[in-house]
Write a structure and sequence with these properties.
Distance between the termini: 33 Å
Oligomer: single chain
Largest sheet: 6 strands, parallel
Shape: globular
Number of helices: 14
CATH superfamily of the largest domain: Dehydroquinate synthase-like - alpha domain
Number of domains: 2
CATH class of the largest domain: Mainly Alpha
Strand content: 5-15%
Low-confidence stretches: none
Number of strands: 10
CATH architecture of the largest domain: Up-down Bundle
Helix content: 40-55%
Mean pLDDT: 95
Order of helices and strands: EHEHEHEHEHEEEEEHHHHHHHHH
Radius of gyration: 20 Å
Length: 363
Amino acid sequence: MAATAIHLTWFNPVQLEWGPNLLHTHTPEQPFFVLADPHAISLAWEADLKRHWGELCVGWIWQRSAQSSITAALQLCQQLWPLWATQPDAALLAIGGGTTLDLAKLARFELNDLALAPSVWRANKLPADHKRHTLWCAPTTSGTGSEVTPWATLWDLDAQPAIKRSWSCVQGFADQAWVDPNLTLTCPEGLTRDTALDTLAHALESIWNHHANAITRPLAVRSARMVLQTLPALMNQPQDQDLREQMSQASLLAGLAMSQTQTALAHALSYDLTLKENLPHGHACAVWLPMVLDIAAAISPQVQGDLADIFDCRWHQAREQLSTWLKNLGITPRDLRSSPAGLHQLQQALGSTRGRNFVGSTA
């Protein structure tokens, strides 16, 4: 019998550099503005980086919004676009977590009229008359994956009810990603845990995914194993540079896999928890992972094999192992399958944009 032909595609144009202390040693090739999260970059670091970069750093903006919302994006554009009028060839270097990187992805597309921006973002369609500025991303957490993905989370808080939108276009990738694991040393305990849980969710969601393939699956399996092995130790030793480096690598691998597959059911279910219960994104995803794992493994032999590789056990034992691991981190898993209301919520999520990526969705 002839072997079945396999066709794979991969598109990720981000020029990637990874290494400890990268920001203090890397010299950019053109002038740039900095957008930085003050919770991640101290004033001392700002001074050190400005000395290192010299005249190439032509401006600095502190990103103080706690959420990647339409309002926050407008405020950033009001600050940034006039700077580009004086330095049109300057790049934008975003240093921060997912909120900072996602806002930078929105603001790097300069429109002729700022008033049009909210409708453009809601429609997720760029007008012909826009300017795309060079964007470099330096994540200060290990979990977002935003530095190597083309989309940005955009909370529309003016909608009734408030909703989570995803800004995405082919041009949405950053031009470069500078991944320096030393930047994550400033992460407090809760943020370290929740961003690592987001990494785990990205990895697992890339596995139980209609778009999973022979390139993305090994990346996701490796990433998930690294998180499971590293995070408990990192919570006890947050200043351990080797553990930070391992978590940084896990986050990057998951982000690369997710850049091809997108996320799936656990993410679709997470958004209500973030809005209604104010749970951090990684936490809100993690509570659903054992249930979604159970559903996916019952459907897909491919998922069964990948779970066996991740958890070093038979696939039907993986759910209990994951549940115990999460509980030890203070996360209580949830399951929607025990009530009609829960089953209805599950079906709605399966029909959503992210839910349709799940191997169990037929929508």
